[in-house]
Design a protein that fits this description.
199 residues, alpha+beta, Lambda Exonuclease, Chain A, 6 strands, globular
């Protein structure tokens, strides 16, 4: 299972299913800007510095978790890995990037045999890093998402839309139709409530 699925699921389970179950994907201004911002991180490169080395586009895997992927950047200081995930725009409220980054840390721990306690989300809009600590709750949440994604792919199910603040920037709005589908679900729930026979 690819590491990228975890970010999609953590952001929105329906988005994950539309992309990875129904094979639907569309670009918008946000995805195009994100692709542009990732350009340098997507080119494999090793850079030696006085304080360690930097690996770009580093392949990752975890046999235990059944994950594969690629880290945008991993800094090694005294051989201790510090993963960095590039994100377009400003710092975000949702935890999807933290889940994706923690999964990278779990892969790096298995691959290197070294503890990975922290990493960072690099926000291209503000040109700043947001440090992330891989504490037990985040590790547990990440493992839970891994299990949920695996179940979603196995069952080939597409959940209903959330129709909240995650929807406007999503490139799949035209495919997902959160307003229309959400309205249909609301009408069906109301009809079920109105026409339930009294005992």
């Amino acid at each position: 299972m690819r590491n990228r699925l975890l970010e999609h699921y953590a952001y929105c389970p329906r988005q994950c299913a539309l992309i990875h179950v129904e094979q639907s994907y569309e670009e918008n201004v946000y995805t195009l800007r994100g692709n542009r911002d990732h350009r340098r991180a997507d080119e494999p490169e090793t850079e030696l510095r006085d304080d360690g080395r930097v690996e770009r586009a580093l392949p990752l895997y975890s046999e235990e978790l059944g994950l594969t992927g690629r880290a945008d950047v991993v800094e090694f200081h005294d051989d201790a890995p510090f993963p960095i995930e590039y994100k377009h725009g400003e710092q975000r409220r949702h935890d999807s990037g933290r889940i994706q980054l923690c999964a990278q840390a779990l892969c790096l721990e298995e691959m290197t045999g070294r503890a990975v306690s922290t990493g960072a989300l690099y926000h291209t809009g503000s040109n700043r890093r947001q440090e992330v600590t891989f504490d037990p709750p985040l590790r547990a949440d990440t493992r839970e998402v891994i299990g949920a994604v695996r179940a979603q792919l196995r069952e080939q199910r597409v959940p209903p839309p959330v129709n909240d603040d995650r929807c406007p920037p999503c490139s799949l709005q035209r495919v997902c139709m959160p307003d229309a589908v959400d309205a249909e679900h609301r009408q069906r729930r109301e009809a079920d409530r109105l026409f339930t026979a009294e005992e």
